[in-house]
C-alpha cells in the first residue's frame, strides 16, 4: 500500500481543526487509511543516510506517514487527502470539476506522429491556467508526480508525466518518435546539450533515473515531445527539457502524459489536474488540449465527465445487511465524494462518479462506500449456524494424545466394579460418603460405580502378568462421586490415570509424566505454597507405600496423587511386580 | 571405614569442624571421607556445610626442584670451588633447562661470574627455593613474598581445596540402616519390603526429563483451527497443489495484469514448467472480457488483457487460487450453498527476516450463499475469532482487488494494550463470481490470515525462524504446551 508523507500541521490546517493522535487515528481507521508512522523530516533524512537519530527538537515539523489504499490515486497528496477527509467529515461539498469552454481554434494542440506507436503510442494533455504556487503546494505538485509514477504508472512503464511552464513554449506541440541521435536538447538540471543516445549513457550513473532507461533503451526510436520551435519538452519516460521547467513563479502549466495504457494515462492526467485545479484562478476549471492523431482522428483531454451509475437500493441494503432509506444512502455517499440522488421511482439510486474516483468500477464499489460511511463497526452481526464441541472432551483428547506420545498404552476399563475392589483392596475404608452404590447388582462385579480408575488399571495389570515388562498404561475416564449439589446427588469427574509396572517401581518415570502433563498444560513448576503453578508434596494415602507417594498441587488445589502402589494392594490384585500409579482430575485444567 | 569413623566420632563429639584435618588425623584419604559425607548427608544422617580454602600445590617443575634442588644451586655446585670452568664444559654437566634457568638465577644472585669461563663469587649458598617448595609440599605456611616469587617462576599454583564441616543430621544413628532407593520385584518376592528404609524423595526438584514424542506447535495450532472450521460447518478444500497458473492465482480473481503483486519481486514464477498447458477456454474468454471491458454492471479495467500473462506458472501466492477453482466448479452445478476452508502453504518472493518467510501457511475460510451480507461476514468473523480467544474485534475499510467491500480485521490485544491487525476479509467482487456462472444474488464472503502469526502470539515466539524451517529451536518445539484454541 502506498504511503504519503504529510506535514501534520498543514494537514490539520487543511482540515480546519487539530486532532490528538488518537482522534486522528480513529478518523483514519473509519475512513480506511492508516497512520503508519509519526516522524520528522530530520529523522527521515538521518534514517536514509543511516545516521544516528538525533533527538527531535520541538520546532521540527511533525510528519505523518499515512497509508492509503492502492487504488485511491486521489489520496496520494495533501490536497486530495485533506479534501476527502473534509468531505467525509461533512465539512465540505464535493467539488464539480469543469473543462474550460474554449473554441477548438484557441485550444492548444498536440499532434501525434505515427512512429510513436512503435514505442509509446499514447499521449494526453491539459493546461492549468492561472495557477498560484507557494512552496508547499509546489512541493506537493512534484511529490504527487513521484507517487503516481511509483504506483499507477508502474515506475513510468505504463504512464510518464511531464509538466511544463507553458509561457516558455509555443504550440502547437508534436509527439514524435525519432532515432536517438536525431534528438538533441538540454535536459532538466543540466546546462549542456545532450544527444539522446549520449544522454542514456550519461544517466547510467544516475541513481534515480537509471532504472527507467530500460523502458526505451533497446528501441530504435525514442519518444519525444516538441513545441513549434522544436524546443524539446520531454524525452518520456526519462526526463523533461530544462527549457520549459516549472518554477514557483510558473502561472500556466502544460501537462502531458505519455503512455502505453491509455486508460491509466487518462486517470493520471485527471488526478493531476483535479488535485491542482484548486490553486487555479478559476477554481476546479481545467483548460483542455486537443490531441490529434496521425490518422486524423482527434480527442479533447482531460475528460472530466462524471460516470453515471444506477444502483438498486435493495442491492446496497441487501449486501450490507442494514435497512437504509434512499436519503440515508445518498447522504452517506456524498460523504464519500459520490454525488447521489433518488432515481425515478425511488427504488434506484443514481450515482455520479467524479473523475477523481477511478476506483469505482461496479455498484459493489458504491455499496462499499455506503458501508464505510455508515461505519463497518456499526453493522449488526448475523450469526451463521455452527457447533460448539464440549471443551472437556476436547481437552481429554489432547491430553490422551500427549500421554500416548510419552510411550503409554491406552486402556479402557469398566465403570462398574465390586465394593471390595473399590475400597478394601485399595486399603481404603468405605465411609459411605463417596461412592454410588447399585441396588440390584447381577453379580458382585457390578456393585458400585468406581470412585477411582485405580481398580480397573490394577485389574488390567493383574490379568497381563505374562506381558513383557515394563507395562506402561493409562486411561482418561470418568468416575462418579456423591454430590449434594446435584439434583440426583452424584456427579461425574474426569480423571487421568497412568501406571508403570516393572522390575522396579518406576516412580521416577511417573514423576516425569506428571511434569510432562504440567508442561503440556503450560503450567510452571513452583515452590511449595505458590499458587501460580504446580508443586509436589509428600502425601499419606493408604493405597500407596508410606513415604513413597506425593500429592500434586495445581494452582493451590490438590488435583491428584502418585506413588508406589502399596505391596498389600499389589498382593490384593495378584500383581507380583512393583507398580507406580498416578491419578489426577483434569477438570481443574479447564478452570481458570 | 570412613563411614564408621565419622558416625562414631559424632556419637561422642558435637562436630567435625574440618573434613581435611579429620582425614589426616584418622589416616584416611580425604576423597573417601568426602564421598561418605555426601552419601550420609543425602540420607540426612549428618548435616554437612561446605568449606573452601585456597592452597598452593607444586607444579611438575616445582616437584622436580623440591627433589633435586633448584637449578641455580645445581649450577653453583657444578662450578668448581677454586678456579673456573668453561661455559661449554659447564653446559655439558647439566640438563639444558637447568643450565638455562640456573645461569640466569645464579647470575642474578651474584653467586657466580658468568663469562666464557665461569667461577664462583661466593663459597657457600643455601637452596632457599628447595626449602620453600618442600614446605609448600607439606602444607606449611610460607611468606607472601615467597609465594609470589614461586608463583612468578611457575613452581606453584593455587588450588581450591573443598571440604566439609559436619554435624549430626535429623536421621543420625551411630550405624547406617539398610536403605533402599526403590521397591523392587525382589523386595516383594522376599517380602522384606516392611524392613526397608527408603531414601527420602526430594519433591523440590522435578522428576528426570521424560522420554516423549512431540508434535510441531504450528501443526498443533493448525489441528485446532481445523477443528474449529469443522465445527462451524466448513468443508476442507484440496490444497495439495503448490504450482498454479497466473490465471487461477490472479486473473480469475479479477486481479489486473499490471497489479504490483504480479511482479517478480513478489511472486515466484517458474522456469520449468513455465506455463500452464490448458485453461478452460470459455471461461478464460469471459475473464478476459471482464478485465478488458467489464460487463455484469462493471466498467472493467480497460486494458489489453494478455493470454501469455495468464499462462505463466507460479508457486501459488495464496490459497485463494484453490478457492477460485472450487467456486468455479461449484458454479457449474445447480446452486447449493457451501462453506469451505483450507490451511496450507503459500509462497512469496520475500526476503527472510524475523517476521517474514518466503513460505508460510495461509488460513482461509469462505461462505458461498444467496443473500449474504456484510452482517454475515462480521458475524462469522466474530464466531471464528472468539473461538480463538479474540472476541474484541473491529473492522477497517481496506483495498483488495478481488473483494469489495474489503475489511481488515483488528483485535484488541490485552497484553500489548492495542489493536493489532489479525487478518483480511471481504466479499468477492461480482466481476469474479459472475463470469463463473453464479446467479446474481449469490455472494461469497471470505477471510484469510496466516497461521504463523497467531501461533507466534500464542506461544510467545518473536522470531519466525525459531518456529518454522530448519533453523528451528528443537527445545522450543518440545516444551510448548498443547494448543487449547477453541476450548473455552
TrEMBL record, chain A:
Catalytic activity: tRNA(Phe) + L-phenylalanine + ATP = L-phenylalanyl-tRNA(Phe) + AMP + diphosphate + H(+)
Names of the cofactor(s): Mg(2+)
Keyword Magnesium in annotation: yes
Biological process according to GO: phenylalanyl-tRNA aminoacylation
Similarity-based family: Belongs to the phenylalanyl-tRNA synthetase beta subunit family. Type 2 subfamily.
Subunit annotation: Tetramer of two alpha and two beta subunits.
The protein's name in its UniProt record: phenylalanine--tRNA ligase
From TrEMBL, chain B:
Aminoacyl-transfer RNA synthetases class-II family profile domain segment(s): 220-481
Reactions accelerated catalytically: tRNA(Phe) + L-phenylalanine + ATP = L-phenylalanyl-tRNA(Phe) + AMP + diphosphate + H(+)
Keywords, sorted A to Z: Aminoacyl-tRNA synthetase, ATP-binding, Cytoplasm, Ligase, Magnesium, Metal-binding, Nucleotide-binding, Protein biosynthesis
UniProt cofactor(s): Mg(2+)
Keyword Cell membrane: no
Lipid biosynthesis is among the record's keywords: no
Superkingdom of source: Eukaryota
Quaternary structure (record): Tetramer of two alpha and two beta subunits.
Protein name: phenylalanine--tRNA ligase
Natural source organism: Hibiscus trionum (Flower of an hour)
